[in-house]
Design brief:
Layout (H helix, E strand, L loop, with lengths): L1 H8 L3 H7 L4 H5 L5 H17 L5 H11 L6 H10 L14 E3 L8 H9 L4 E3 L9 H15 L7 H17 L11 H4 L1
Parallel strand pairs: 1-2
Helix pairs in contact: 1-2, 4-6
Length: 187
């Protein structure tokens, strides 16, 4: 209001500050973080435009571990929310190890190894692939990240795009299991 009074009504700065009960320091204050906040906003918009299924966690992990920015997570989250980039939060489920009935998972070596490690194996019902959530999670990532967002004319286009996406998935996309780092950065 003091700035409006000074700009529109040609009121003296000192008089405007006294009238609105603020200090002249407060009136003259310029945020030093505006440029950095604009850079953070630009990076977040760029990331979410390229990867529409990325939420805050993956965006933050990418900026911290892949792009090597050292911005505070609270600051990035505040800007992320201001830009209304929020995704719906899904509850996490604790894993039980499930696998299908393929020959590699029903061998005695595998079951003996799991028994020695104290791991319980649950086999899905034959023909019911929805019960194998881990591979289905990967399939969902593939489906939402690029299959449902692109139209392909030839099988070669699909293979080229899949190769590029797989490289991005392994080299740049942060994974929660690796503390937010891509798999090949950890390996």
């Amino acid at each position: 209001m003091a700035q409006d009074a000074v700009l529109q009504r040609s009121v003296n700065i000192h008089l405007a500050c006294v009238s609105f009960n603020i200090s002249e320091k407060c009136y003259r204050y310029q945020s030093k973080l505006k440029d950095k906040n604009a850079l953070i906003a630009a990076k977040l918009v760029e990331l979410t435009d390229e990867n529409r299924d990325w939420g805050f966690g993956i965006c933050f992990a990418y900026l911290r571990h892949v792009a090597q920015y050292r911005w505070n997570h609270k600051r990035i989250y505040r800007i992320y929310c201001e830009l209304a980039l929020n995704l719906r939060i899904k509850p996490k489920r604790t894993p039980v190890i499930r696998c299908d009935n393929g020959p590699e998972f029903i061998s005695h070596q595998f079951t003996d190894w799991a028994k020695d490690k104290g791991i319980r194996i649950e086999y899905i019902q034959p023909g019911n692939h929805q019960q194998n959530a881990y591979i289905e999670r990967y399939n969902r990532t593939v489906r939402y990240s690029w299959l449902s967002q692109n139209l392909f004319d030839t099988l070669e286009e699909v293979q080229d795009y899949a190769t590029k996406w797989l490289w991005h998935y392994n080299h740049e996309r942060p994974h929660q299991a690796n503390q937010g780092k891509p798999p090949l950065m950890v390996a």
